[in-house]
Amino acid sequence: MDAGVQTLVMGVSAFLGLLFAALAFMNFRNFKKRSGLLKRAQEMTGSVNGRVSELVTVRRSNRSFRWKNEYPVVSYQVNGKEYTVSLDFAEKRKGSYSLGETYRVNYVPSDPSCCIVEEFRKQLESSRVRALAGMVVLCLFLFNIVFSLLTQ
Description:
The chain is of the alpha+beta class. The protein is built from two helices and six strands; from the N terminus they run αββββββα. Strands 1, 2, 3, 4, 5 and 6 form a six-stranded antiparallel beta sheet that branches. A hairpin with a 2-residue loop joins strand 5 and strand 6 (111-117).
């Protein structure tokens, strides 16, 4: 193979490797964050009603359509202090949530910012699994790229 083409291929492979590494790291962070919340679920003995205080709009598209999804931001009070939790893993079509809707929030009494909105526990668990699967797939691609770069 020509040296210029080989250099180009190695450069593109290195770029893709860095991209896959960054994406795998982001998936790993999401997995750790969601696993940490679920591991502390037994400590969440405090319970209070929270309300949807904000709806965050997310634009999505594919080759044929464009649409808007949204996810709720739930606010709740513990001992007179206001807390909010952004439920980005509970994204649904726009119009699925309403401002002011109430949900049950379970929190750790010693750290009220650590909470799970009970109605969204299954979505939290499935988003944790998706983050883990994404990380594994990206790491396999990354391993393949690194191995091919080292053997050239």
